[in-house]
Amino acid sequence: MPALAIEILSPLQDVKTLGDKFKIYFALGVQSCWLVYPYANAIAVYHAPDDFKLFAQDEVVDSVVGVRIPLHEIFS
To answer: Which end of the chain is less congested by CB atoms within 10 angstroms, N or C?
Structure first.
């Protein structure tokens, strides 16, 4: 399994559906899941189904997979 899974929330999706998908990912061994909110220019980084941090300014930091990316590089 990959160390990181990234899902992008579309206008027709609900967060609960993606949360259920994240539970499956974690059960299979994925270490980190990102939920991208494109209309808010924000990213929630999950390290467990109920453990997340929301990044909406500066940069996304995911210490589990060792990633730091400025948000302006993602959403520009």
So the answer is: C
